[in-house]
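Weekly sync, protein design subgroup
Attendees: M.S., D.O., the rotation student, P.L. (late)

Item 1: inverse folding check
M.S. brought a backbone from last month's batch and wanted to see whether the design step gives back something sensible before we order anything. D.O. pointed out we never logged the input encoding, so this time it goes straight into the notes. Structure tokens as presented (166 positions):
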């Protein structure tokens, strides 16, 4: 299995797109099913955001200072997703705003993922060696073990609280 950081993150993005499609294809009245899909979306996003925030972004920021502005914009986009995830996590699928909030989350994350894949990853691939990307990837595989899986877990919650009170 490849430990290339970009390959790993792209795999996560693929899984997100699959979950987004599931939600979009679910019937309007499939409340319970949509609730379960959103639970999966929140878990996938919580883990992925953690790996990028704790490893990929700081590593790239340090190794490729020219990409700093992109990294800072990404932190802000993650923050928006974190807030939406935390709100959705506290909601019931029957809530009248549940579907609308999920749709906005999907739109935001889709935009962010497209920017990463079309613009940011190519720059990172160009700037870093294969070995550097494999080392970052190996660290992310390790980090995944202890990554928070829901917004209620301490590290994810702290992140959201810090973002709101900053
Ligand atoms: Fe990201
Ligand atoms: Fe990403």
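Designed sequence read out in the meeting:
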């Amino acid at each position: 299995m490849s430990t290339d950081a970009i390959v790993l993150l792209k795999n996560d993005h693929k899984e997100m797109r699959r979950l987004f499609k599931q939600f979009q294809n679910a019937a309007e009245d499939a409340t319970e099913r949509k609730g379960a899909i959103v639970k999966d979306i929140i878990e996938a996003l919580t883990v992925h955001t953690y790996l990028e925030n704790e490893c990929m972004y700081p590593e790239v920021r340090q190794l490729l200072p020219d990409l700093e502005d992109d990294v800072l914009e990404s932190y802000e986009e993650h923050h928006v997703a974190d807030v939406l995830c935390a709100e959705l996590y506290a909601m019931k699928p029957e809530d009248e705003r549940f579907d609308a909030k999920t749709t906005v989350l999907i739109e935001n994350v889709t935009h962010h993922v497209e920017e990463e894949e079309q613009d940011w990853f190519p720059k990172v691939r160009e700037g870093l060696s294969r070995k550097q990307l494999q080392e970052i990837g190996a660290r992310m595989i390790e980090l995944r073990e202890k990554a928070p899986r829901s917004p209620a877990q301490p590290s994810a919650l702290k992140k959201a609280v810090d973002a709101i009170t900053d």
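Discussion: The domain at 5-165 is CATH 1.20.120 (Four Helix Bundle (Hemerythrin (Met), subunit A)). The chain has one domain: 5-165.
Action: P.L. to compare against the previous round before Friday.
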